[in-house]
Amino acid sequence: MTCTATLRTDRLLMRAWQPADRAPFAAMNADPQVMEHFTGLQTRETSDALVDRIEQGWADLGYGLWAVDRLDTGAFIGFIGLARATFEAPFTPVVEVGWRLAAAHWGNGFATEGGSAALRYGFGTLGLSEIVSFTARGNRPSWRVMERLGMVHEAAMDFDHPSVPEGHPVRPHVFYRITRDRWGSSASPRACQ
Known about the structure:
Elements: E1 7-8, E2 12-15, H1 22-29, H2 44-61, E3 65-70, E4 76-85, E5 94-101, H3 110-125, E6 130-136, H4 140-148, E7 152-153, E8 159-160, E9 172-179, H5 180-183
Antiparallel strand pairs: 1-2, 2-3, 3-4, 4-5, 6-9, 7-9, 8-9
């Protein structure tokens, strides 16, 4: 059985995926607002396949993207966590911090709160020396989250994402990075509770 660390922040529970998460996650992935900075909407099948890959990542790597619940309502709101990026680019392979939340939960600082917990886990528990993040050039709200997390935009590393078709408007991506020294946190969340 895979040990998925459970993290708790002031307002969020970051936990292992459950079968009941798949339907609301598929609804998120079919929402044009949520998927604005991706190549298109996902079907239930492609959304479920993404959950399968996330769960396999936990099994293979011992870290990954957590399913996230609000503590006040218990509502599943999306994912936040760490993923291994291995596509062809000058900076890969790397560990990326990322998030995808249902639009109804935007604007509350949840991505920053959960992203901070994921960085603490990556640097403290996993001992990573750096963590990156990237997104479509037009996704300014995600840029702001990266900056609130203390990440630095490295414009020289901006790139065209090789998994996005040439000419697609979301192919150009911005690149952010933070090192363990810059993060400067010695705290690490408890794992596998």
